[in-house]
Amino acid sequence: MRSIQWYDLKWQPKVTKVNDIATMTGNFHLAEDWPRAVGKPTRAFFNVGSPSPVFVRLSTKLNGEPTFISGPLEIGRDYAFEVRLKARIPGRHHMHAMVNIKDAGPIAGPASWMNISGSWDDFTNPVTTLTGKTIDLETFNFSNGIF
């Protein structure tokens, strides 16, 4: 399909341990002759396609700017992306760069196999709240969610 052309994609490193940081970088171009049958990218979100939350997304940048929510992308324009990921679930996982577009759905780009070793039990995801308290998002209030 002629919607998105992906190029110069890199997944580094391809072998990590639980809690290690990996990056996915590359570029994509939104084709000038965008298909009429595909919704225009007036509301789009850069995403990562994986079999489950095997990595935790730490940050996403498009053209060097932090990107947290959906927004418009311009047809005919090139975008550079960088996604920082923290390894969470051990195994061999097939990871795609992806753009989700309102009224079109996900458009997956190239993929690579990412290998995570170690134990899922060792995973932590600490954050410091505005009050200065540090909590682990992986386990915080876990007991309140079990019925």
Question: Can you offer a commentary on this structure?
Answer:
- The protein is mainly beta and 147 residues long.
- It has one domain: Sandwich (Jelly Rolls).
- It has no helices and eleven strands.
- It has strands spanning 4-12, 15-17, 21-30, 44-49, 55-62, 65-66, 78-87, 91-101, 105-117, 126-128, 134-136.
- Strands 1-3-7-5-6 form a five-stranded antiparallel beta sheet, with no helix packed on it. A four-stranded mixed beta sheet has the order 2-9-8-4, with no helix packed on it. The protein has a two-stranded antiparallel ribbon with strand order 10-11.
- Strand 8 (91-101) and strand 9 (105-117) form a beta hairpin.
- It is globular, with a radius of gyration of 17 Å.
- The termini are far apart.
- Pfam families: Monooxygenase_B.
- InterPro entries: NH3_CH4_mOase_B, NH3_CH4_mOase_suB_N.
- GO terms for molecular function: monooxygenase activity.
How is the CATH topology named?
Answer: Jelly Rolls
Mean pLDDT: 94
Straight-line distance between termini: 46 Å
Helix content: under 10%
CATH level-1 class: Mainly Beta
- Determine Rg (CA atoms, Å): 17 Å
Strand order of the largest sheet: 1-3-7-5-6
The fourth-level CATH homologous superfamily is Particulate methane monooxygenase, b subunit. Chain: A, domain 1
The count of β-strands is: 11
Structural class: mainly beta
Note the run of SSEs as H and E. EEEEEEEEEEE
List low-pLDDT spans. Answer: none
Q: What is the level-2 CATH architecture name?
A: Sandwich
Oligomer: single chain
Major sheet characteristics: 5 strands, antiparallel
Strand fraction equals over 45%
* Shape assignment: globular
